[in-house]
Amino acid sequence: MRYYPVFLNIAGKPVVVIGGGEVGLRKVEGLLDAGAQVTIVSPTLHPGLEPLVAQGTVRHIARAYASGDLEGHVLAFVGTDDRTVNAAVAREGKERGVWVNAVDDPVNCDFIMPGVVQRGDLIVAVCTSGGSPAMARKMREELEAFLTEDHARMLNLAAEVRQELRDRDVVIDPEVWNAALDEEMRRLLTEGHREEAKQRLLRSLLEPAKER
Fold first, then answer.
1. Taking all residues of the chain, what is their mean pLDDT, rounded to a whole number?
2. Residue 108 burial (CB < 10 Å; 0-12/13-18/19+)?
3. Per-residue confidence at 209, pLDDT binned at 50, 70, 90?
4. Which of 46, 142, 196, 201 sits a CA distance of 20 to 30 A from 88?
5. How confident is the model at residue 202 (pLDDT cuts 50, 70, 90)?
6. What are 158-181's pLDDT values in tens digits?
7. Cα separation, 7 vs 27, whole angstroms
8. Coil, strand, or helix at residue 60?
9. Shortest CA distance to 140 belongs to which of 166, 113, 159?
10. Which domain holds residue 194?
11. Are residue 157 and residue 93 in the same domain, yes or no?
């Protein structure tokens, strides 16, 4: 099976997590970081989840999963070791049109979670189409070593300049952008010369546009 890679905007959207253990904690943390409205269904909670519930950051339904728990949600994550629960949640998901991810149980998944490397707003995801979680982890570790905070700084500056140019109705060819994000710009950012790097980037983008 091949999967279609996509990044979802779930800010403000209701997501349910079935299971309140270590796996549930990791899922909840990632979902909150993306701005989701999270409900946990579990008779018990990992100690890391208890403060989130106490603060009202997440909603907790203190019981085992029951049919109907997916109603009103856009995504569901199952973090239990019970394959019968996974299958029941997957069936309900299909009935209600809710996408389901059951951890380490691809048969009961509508989507799978990639290995993720993040530096600021720069996110790189690795997927082996469910073939080898170990290989996905290996690739993630290699990417973690490759990607640095310099890449995140480059992204932030590129996003700022892109917005400024869009506000001026200036359109830049993708190939020009690609050439402009060069090692010299990265060096300037690394050495703390952000304004100089920005001016260099603008020149690299606008001078080819003038030539056309």
1. 93
2. buried
3. low
4. 46
5. very high
6. 999 999 999 999 999 999 999 999
7. 16
8. strand
9. 113
10. 149-211
11. no
Q: Is the pLDDT confidence value at 1 over 90? A: no
Separation between Cα atoms, residue 206 and residue 162, nearest integer Å: 12
Number of structural domains in the chain = 3
The Cα–Cα gap between 178 and 141 comes to 26
Q: Which residue's structure tokens are 């909840």?
A: 28
pLDDT-derived band at 51, boundaries 50, 70, 90? very high
Residue of 193, 5, 200 lying closest to 116 (CA atoms): 5
36 and 76 fall within a common domain: yes
Q: Where residue 191 falls among pLDDT bands split at 50, 70, 90?
A: very high
Query: Residues near 48 by Cβ (< 8 Å), separated by ≥ 6?
Result: 25
CA gap 47, 83 in Å, rounded: 24
Distances (CA, A) of 71 to 21, 82, 89, 179, 184: 22, 21, 11, 48, 52
Q: 206 phi and psi, to 5 degrees?
A: -85, -35
Residues 175 and 82 in one domain: no
**119 and 80 in one domain?**
no
118: its two tokens: 């993040």
Could you tell me the end-to-end alpha-carbon distance of the chain, in angstroms, rounded to an integer?
45
